[in-house]
Amino acid sequence: MLVKMVENVAYDELAEVELPGGHIRRGRVLEVNGDTAVVQLFESAAGINLAQSKVRFLGHPLQLGVSEDMLGRVFNGMGRPMDGGPEILPQEYRDINGLPMNPAARDYPNEFIQTGVSTIDGLNTLVRGQKLPIFSGSGLPHANLAAQITRQARVLGDSGMPSRQEGAAIPSGKSGAGAGNFAVVFAAIGITFEEAEFFAREFQRTGAIHRTVLFSNLADDPAVERIATPRMALTAAEYLAFEKDMHVLVIMTDLTNYAEALREVSAAKKEVPGRRGFPGYLYTDLATLYERAGRQRGKPGSITMIPILTMPEDDKTHPIPDLTGYITEGQIILSRVLYRQGINPPVDVLPSLSRLKDKGIGKGKTREDHADTMNQLFAAYSTGKDNRELMSILGEGALTPTDRLYAKFADEFEKRYVNQGYGEDRSIEETLDLGWELLSILPTAELKRIRQEYIQKYLPKKEG
Question: pLDDT category, 463, cuts 50, 70, 90?
Fold first, then answer.
């Protein structure tokens, strides 16, 4: 919408269009040229009467009213309640664009978050304050994995034991926040109506909705709203983490829809396109989202982020996953091959990586044997996959007995460790014990990456 004869209007400022009947529609300033402003409406332009409608500029960017009452509520992409409940009485209003966190004020992520998913907890550990994206593909069940993590995620006490009781406090230590003082902010970006129903139903069914703030932006909502949704979610997360001292896990799906909305608005502004038509500032824009996660010195709360994106044509070099990989600390990659084999969640262990995993594991955090068993499982699975391929080419007779055991290990690892389904919540102890059980398939002499005292303490004794 083009508005002429304006004064003192700024880029990104919020505008309200008052229709003849008193109904208000909102928009955002995309461009200012002299006394003319280009306003992008958040809703349809149908029914706007040019002669009788009024436009007023509010003098501030889009804001979100924040309060602890947001927990357990469902909002649309603009932060308005859509669960039939009352309006939130905000403690304060915050600019959704936030402020960059001073790097000198950042605290290093070094505390374990348990997701209940073995492939993440055991091998690609999530640490409080980390940004760990999930790279998926079109049609892969990333929505199920996102819902599972939302239901199951929890922080652990200083003893390394989970506190499953809501409101239970961590024993006094470095953390300063209770293990029950944990919340999930879920931003669903450009999803279908069926996916929105699925998330709402799953969270209600399991009771996870009581600690969750859900922002739901549907595929038929305007592109500008899609750009605002993740910022709404992060604004709510910042309030809960740094004002209310909560540990907040932010899950955003699907960032590919967000980037495509950004491309749409960029094209409307006639900006020079970059790779694959995306704006040249895509890296900077994604960084303004991802870098809002972390921990601050002197504040017990934290924001941990799991952005989920679908790679177009399963291409890891596409600009969205490519740039995301530069900004974040690792990635969890879903495999179409494993999905076709009926393995769920289909996490491809070998190319997945958590760059901070060694900071959140070990004695007092998970268990003393975690690092050694993790390295041994990676190595054994890699060798087993290679031997399995050799077996399919040369035949089983060409392999040594030890090679065949490695191939057997790879099969069992996928069937039992990776394929846990979406309903099973494994503690870190159960994940580590399962790892030891699988390693017992191999001769003890092959466990070269594990210290001898751990082998004697944890390796199941073979009968006979």
Answer: low
